[in-house]
Task: structure prediction
Amino acid sequence: MRVCVIGTGYVGLVTGTCLAHIGHHVICVDNNEEKVKLMKSGQSPIFEPGLSELMSSASASGNLEFTSDLAAGVAHGEILFIAVGTPPLPTGESDTRYVEAVARGIGAHLDGDYKVLVNKSTVPIGSGDWVRRIVLDGLAERQKPQNSEGVTGEEVVAKTGVQFDVVSNPEFLREGCAVHDTFNPDRIVLGSNSQRAMNMMVELYSPIVDRKFAENTSLPPVPVVMTDISSAEMIKYAANAFLATKISFINEVANICDRVGADVTQVARGIGLDSRIGSKFLQAGIGWGGSCFPKDVSALVHTADDYGYEAHLLKAAVEVNERQRLIAIEKLQQVLKILKGKTVGLLGLTFKPDTDDLRDAPSLNLIENLNRLGAKVKAYDPIVSQTGMRHGLSGVLVETDPERLADGCDALVLVTDWEQFRNLDYEKMAKLMNHPVMIDGRNFLDKKVLESAGFQYVGIGR
Result:
């Protein structure tokens, strides 16, 4: 099938590349000319395991193209994905101006061929009808030069025969695992009131539904949830809000464990074996971050407020998470007492491993608060340190290797649970430090290994 993906961030680029890999002809559109040039040269603008290799093979086969020409993308695609960012506003609601601009642009270029417009961006509940109206506005604006009185979008549809439907198809990709998640989804959610559009989406995803590109091709077909647009949009918000709440719950339990002498890792194991609870997202630490959980929980809280409901549980989950980011500071103060004049090293900067994403990362809060308390802050991250990407970081010295990080430090804080951090030369690092203290902000490291290397080990809820 012919596909156009508008927006080449984490979601758009992964979606477009993976759809090209399974055999569709995909054109990815972005209004950033430099970014388009970079992708045309075969380079990915983001770090995502496996993505660059898929981009190269799909481009070589002719299935994947990149352009800044929206008109060309719209003309090409039978299915048009809107995959631009919807960052949070200070109020907590989503900033939908980029979605609006794309929808209006699509309307300005639609022709007589039937198109399916897919909301892949995480958009407020009710955006399906809103996107349709914006597209119709774009259609109407295109007709104004021929009609000084102007015409409505519906009149343009009747006059020109332009046909399109809107589908909500929320993404559930985890940064660092996005390619894997695309080919091995737990479910595919489709929301629309058009059977024709639904049929085309099922055809589009059939190779993935049938597990032809899955890690385990013998598994049953991927469940496809077909529903109305608003329910599909709510599924995305509800899923992320639940996972964020689950993390906040185990972090609250960890804080109680600290006070009563229990070990939260054992508690999490014990409750996770209950099939009604499950073991995932029960890893206590210094809180969640990234581009999805904070934005989606805030957006759902804001939507509830708009409709006269106060989401007490979700607001509490956010409050617990904000407080949890200060736990590492409290533990540093307990061990080192006064932090003014001390040097603290952060192991990891990104909000999770296997990504270069620093959006709403706990490390940023730590840097800010440690600076406020008069500490010198150093950091090492496998991606940020090696690529030179500083993402506007300030108040921190980014070192190029773990040993340079440890040199002269009074304590280290493990912020991101990168797998390579399990096997660092901690004995050598301990000898380079003023005070070999490790605050394990993810309960990720082996306490016995650290203590045998000479560290004072401090976990979360342990």
Remarks:
- The first helix runs from residue 10 to 21.
- The chain is about 45% helix and 15% strand.
- The mean pLDDT is 94.
- The longest strand covers residues 2-6.
